[in-house]
Amino acid sequence: MKQRVTIEKVEPLSHRWAKLDRYTIRYTRQDGSVDMLTREVHDHGHGASVLPYDPQRGTVLLVRQFRLPAYLHDADGFIIETCAGLLDGDDPAHCAKREAEEELGVRLSNLRFMTTVYMTPGAVTERLSLFIADYDHGSRIGAGGGEAHEGEDIEVLEMPFEDMRRMVQDGRIVDAKTLLLSLFLERELGLPPL
Predict the structure, then answer these.
(1) Where does residue 125 fall: left (phi above 0), alpha (psi -120 to 50 degrees), or beta otherwise?
(2) Which end of the chain is flanked by fewer CB atoms within 10 Å, N or C?
(3) DSSP class of residue 191?
(4) Cβ atoms within 10 Å of 100's Cβ, excluding its own
(5) Within 10 A of 189 (CB to CB), how many other CB atoms are there?
(6) Which of 134, 74, 78 has the alpha carbon at shortest distance from 104?
(7) Model pTM greater than 0.85?
(8) What is the CA radius of gyration of the chain?
């Protein structure tokens, strides 16, 4: 099959916190006809996310933090989610461990890779690597809360995994990476769907 996409032009729109570029592409459709398409693409790098689970107590660690896009769309903008961060040159496993220390104040053990996904492939280049890991009270190394110099103001939430599952079920957890990791942990524990 011949190449179906040719990039005709790239126009930088913003290269501050993230890159936003406008692409003009020549796209050959399945029937052979050709369209000229314009798309804007947001690129701020790839990331990793982890759901820590305490197998002795059946609890998980999550974060609640302000997200401007959620605020602009609905609710108060505070989202419950798994801790996550940009790779910043690290491999995904190292990033997941680093973010757990910064955001949750815990050192993880038994880190398990689940998958890598595009979260919003229609407009965002980011690929997220998803992990599950173990923790316990002995793995606490600090208060967590994130890095203030990065604008983070993160509330750490510890709850029974069953509560998290109910929050996913009833729509109180709406973050996609968090929902996926909840399903992976549910599968790993052999739990039936709610």
Answers:
(1) alpha
(2) N
(3) P
(4) 30
(5) 12
(6) 134
(7) yes
(8) 19
Query: Angle, nearest 10°, between helix axes 161-170 and 176-188?
Result: 130
User: Taking Cα atoms as reference points, which of 109, 110, 108, 105 lies closest to residue 141?
Assistant: 105
Which residue do the tokens 């059946």 mark?
Answer: 58
Name the pairing type of β-strands 5-15 and 78-81: unpaired
pLDDT digits (tens, 9 = 90+) for 59-101: 999 999 998 888 998 878 999 999 999 999 999 999 999 999 9
Average pLDDT over residues 165-171: 96
Average pLDDT of 153-160?
93
Q: How far, CA to CA in Å, does 148 sit from each of 25, 77, 151?
A: 40, 18, 5
Q: What is the C-alpha separation between 102 and 18, in angstroms, rounded?
A: 22
| C-alpha separations of 50 from 1, 5, 78, 182 in Å | 39, 35, 19, 10
Tokens at 102, concatenated: 């910064």
Q: Is domain 47-188 annotated with CATH 3.30.70.1150?
A: no
Per-position DSSP letters for 58-124, written without gaps between them = TEEEEEEEE-HHHHHHSSSSEEEE-EEEE-TTS-HHHHHHHHIIIII-B--EEEEEEEEEESSTTTB
